[in-house]
Amino acid sequence: MKKTTVLLLAGGLTAASACTTTQKDTTATGMTTETTAAAAEEVQLNYPETKKVDHVDDYHGTKVADPYRWLETHTEEVDSWIQAQNEVTQSYLGDINFRDNIKSRLTEIWNYPKYGAPFKKAGKYYFYKNDGLQNQSVLYVQETLESEPKVFFDPNKLSSDGTVALTAFAFSKDGKYVAVGTSSGGSDWNTYQVMDAATGKMLNDKLEWVKFSGPSWYKDGFFYSRYDAPTEGNKLANKNEYHKVYYHKVGTPQSQDQLIYEDKAHALRNFYGQTTNDERFLILNASEGASGANALFYKDLADPKSTIKPIVDNFENEYNVVDNFGDKLLVMTNKNAPRYRLVLIDPKKPQEANWKTVVPESQNVIRGISTVGGRIIVTYMKDAASQVVVYDQSGKQLNTVELPTLGTVSGFSGDQKDKETFFTFTSFTYPPTIYRYDVPSNKVSLFRKTEVNVDTEAYETKQVFYTSKDGTKVPMFIVHKKGLKLDGTNPTYLYAYGGFNISMTPSFSIANMLWLENGGVYAMPNLRGGGEYGEEWHKAGMTPNKQNVFDDFIAAAEYLIDQKYTSSEKLAVAGGSNGGLLVGAFMTQRPELAKVALPAVGVMDMLRFHKFTIGWAWVPEYGSADNAAQFENLYQFSPLHNIKEGAKYPATMVKTADHDDRVVPAHSFKYISELQAKGAPGNPYLIRVDVRAGHGAGKPTSLVIQEWADTYAFIYQNMGVNPYLNQ
């Protein structure tokens, strides 16, 4: 066992006093944050011994050691290593006196009804609801908006521990059947079944090895995408190749499904089939990576002789079919419009010269488009916040939809015949609130307000623009209590992503409210690599420009420190997936800037990520070590390969899950092993491995609450802060 000395907070509450009635009453009015005056005691952490193997790879003449290669495979030895690491981590967390208080408060404020916006199918209204602490949300149905809701489908009955999650739920056009997708333990692998909507009974249909798909109905069956069954042994890590599109007819076995499309010449392409609302067209989206660009194919289902034909046969831009107007396709694209435009394309004459622009590109980025009630409803982003504009079908602007404040909109689902639709609005301190939108009159009315057990009015949100290393102005949202003193002592949680054209927009998190009510600052910058300002902003953070993303994140931390929001001793940096890579790079490049680092399910081995599951799809975003020039770029920032012997890194808790088949946990396993072996003593370097969980989607509420309790306890402990010292 490797021993290291860390500082543990002394003088806090005892675990036995964590859940008293008095504590519950006082936290209801808000908690205080104070730095403990008690002395810190030195405690030794005994890390598990992690064996090293003599393995060296040659990358274009550069020899790179990989001593933890053995952690890439799923073996009993690896399972034992995971158990030993978890024991060390849980022992450390269990000694934090106020962890139970945090979990108690989180459980208390988490316990409120959470609703999804209603949607209409076959004349009935459906909506998702979680009573408060249910592991999975339940789907309800009602005949009218005033009638009594009834449970239509309850995913909580699929498993005793809530680890089987609903991933797809698609009604046939007549509402008779529902295609139901589920995943177990957080895996990306899905199983599809068919349910009789009238009786709620599952039919015998069962489709396996579905991945990166969605059921798209056509008549008495649906299109879906899958891979061949993986080889035995390491199903969670095997490389995914040769994606295929099938058609499944209800009541038949999967072995009889009709192969609709495959590409035997290109193993690393994904294909997603979707049908238009009227089931006139089958649209095939083909992609070579996860950065958004795609080719586009179609089949006219109204013509029995029709074959699959290309509309766009290259992978240079994005094309998203929104709907069809008769025999024309309404397509959202960034072709010659980095912030997107809406065009009408005749698939029989797909040349760009024949496209008709319906909604042109503007200064704001188009984030989403719906066609409801004869209108085109366009959601824009302006500096990462939503705006909604309504057009007629010719592209004439009719009006705007009024929103409550700076925040994020989602919804507006429906059909062309519908006269109403619903949307959800949320912001950092604005719980998700559902509004009804009357399309003909352009009137917005409150449909359902979310009530939470926190005083959301006590906080304020501001947006600042700071300067990155190369002079680029980067926006950042900052949330904190009103009247916060800028004295450099406020615990601050800096969270970001920065990649894959994904936009980070204001949203409500009940977990964040615990941080805020303890006097914490929450900061979220919109780094390059994201989609907040369109494709140009995205490309500015892609290979070979990935360092810009890390520079933006570092500059955000420096801004918060310079402006006295916090100090390096009170700053925690966090991110997940691509954001885990971000935190890992931050740690190796500027370890002195933060006290705590929380890389979750991160891409840490930038030389081998493309060899596992769907990792090859990230090559357009990152580059590949198989390319000499790209290898040099990746090697410079790969978190695993830039940990230095004897350097003091922030207190680190790496988070991953044993069933993550998106970013395989070997990334985190190898990273923490290197950190424990090389990092200077003084701060803990731990890994927290969830069992029966995956990349994050569908995680049960109970596991989410425990993870946040552990996360906040770890942060406060290492900042020398006890949020419950006076209670």
From TrEMBL:
Enzyme class of the recorded protein, top EC level: hydrolase
Annotated GO CC locations: cytosol
One GO-annotated biological process of the protein: proteolysis
Domain Peptidase S9 prolyl oligopeptidase catalytic span(s) in chain numbering: 506-720
Peptidase S9A N-terminal domain mapped to chain residues: 48-449
Enzyme Commission numbers on file: 3.4.21.26
Entry's Gene Ontology molecular function annotations: oligopeptidase activity; serine-type endopeptidase activity
Protein name per its UniProtKB record: prolyl oligopeptidase
Organism: Pontibacter chinhatensis
